[in-house]
């Protein structure tokens, strides 16, 4: 076990003193909280103060100021902080002043969780406070919180070390209350999406996370083993094929907020565990999906910010519909000056070399085009832009374009230089789908460890008949990054993946 610091030893001694004084530092019974810091501040006035005479609040001690026979505490609950005014004779009305002189003055530390009963009033300095009539111990903190200075509501010396903040998110949330706002907005984003699709009559569903075949995307999966069945299983890389099975089964619209897992690199926009919302609608195409997605994202921006304009770093991104559209080939030509639309695999390799793009021998035509777009074009699309009409080699689950040979009806939505959404007119021809899967197997045999497996059950489902369908996947983590002005995916995940701590 890690050796204790001097302060941690002292806090354990105080814990023992509390127990010796007959105070349970971790009581089990319900505490009758009936108000919050934010609500008290919102409703207090000379006219309403009579309604705030029997307040019961609970929270964490963030500041403590001893004034002799009185004291002030800044108590922080989940809505913010409020000042407690504690007078010795109020909480110790009899001869025994132990609760104040010993417990309060000597045994309460910053970080302890207290309950307080009393009434709201305004101090001589004009600060709304709670005049405490009863103080209760609810939990003793045995570790010292990092010291964060505040003055006039402004925070100084905030803890910014990402290693500490991401690994000990529970402390980050305590000492950097603004972090909570990111996660509250994340929930609002998801709720807005739910409301939007529910209003369209679509059904929220759940599909398997452990799958016998890692289908629905090109990515390297995590693999495990099921002991009872004695079979390998994979953590899902996408939920697409299961949702399309439900469309085959007769649902006109389904969606799911899915935890997906990809055994790949980590950076500011990638975490091995991430959240995607996928939605599939029968009798729709990718043109409908573009219009619907514009409307949805515009609504999310308005719900969170009251405007379609969102600040992201030094940029202002406008989600006002409609969004720009440009084909993948035109996007590459726009930023490289090279028309690759008629190139074969060998010519694409030469083009990659010419552009200084490193490629592997296992990469087929689709991967080469993807590399060119990713290296030379993608980052240029800051404002919401639909990149449409992809080469068929890049899209094994997408319907061939109705009027452009060699292309498919697919779009990716680029925002702030990164993919935010991916959508298709879904391939519902089982014979074509089988051939696309077989082409993926050939890539796998060449060493492409991200190529798709053949899902024979999915092919069987298609053979029963799937109506014309459009589907989309929206990255919830990246959407939250944009909507909350965070530049790292770790800032929008409560508990991002990290290397093990040394010595653990």
Task: Give an overview in words.
The protein is elongated, with a radius of gyration of 29 Å. The N and C termini lie close together (9 Å). Helix 7 packs across helix 9 (286-305), helix 7 crosses helix 15 (476-483) and helix 13 runs antiparallel to helix 14. Helices cover 33% and strands 26% of the residues. The chain has 15 helices and 20 strands. It has 504 residues and is α+β, with helices and mostly antiparallel strands. The longest helix is centred in the middle third of the chain and has 22 residues, at 178-199. The model has no long low-confidence stretch (mean pLDDT 93). It has an 8-stranded mixed β-sheet, with helices on both faces. The chain folds into 2 domains: 6-145, Nucleic acid-binding proteins (OB fold (Dihydrolipoamide Acetyltransferase, E2P)); 180-323 and 383-492, Bira Bifunctional Protein, Domain 2 (BirA Bifunctional Protein, domain 2, 2-Layer Sandwich), CATH 3.30.930.10. Strand 2 (70-77) and strand 3 form a beta hairpin. Keywords: Aminoacyl-tRNA synthetase, ATP-binding, Cytoplasm, Ligase, Magnesium, Metal-binding, Nucleotide-binding, Protein biosynthesis.
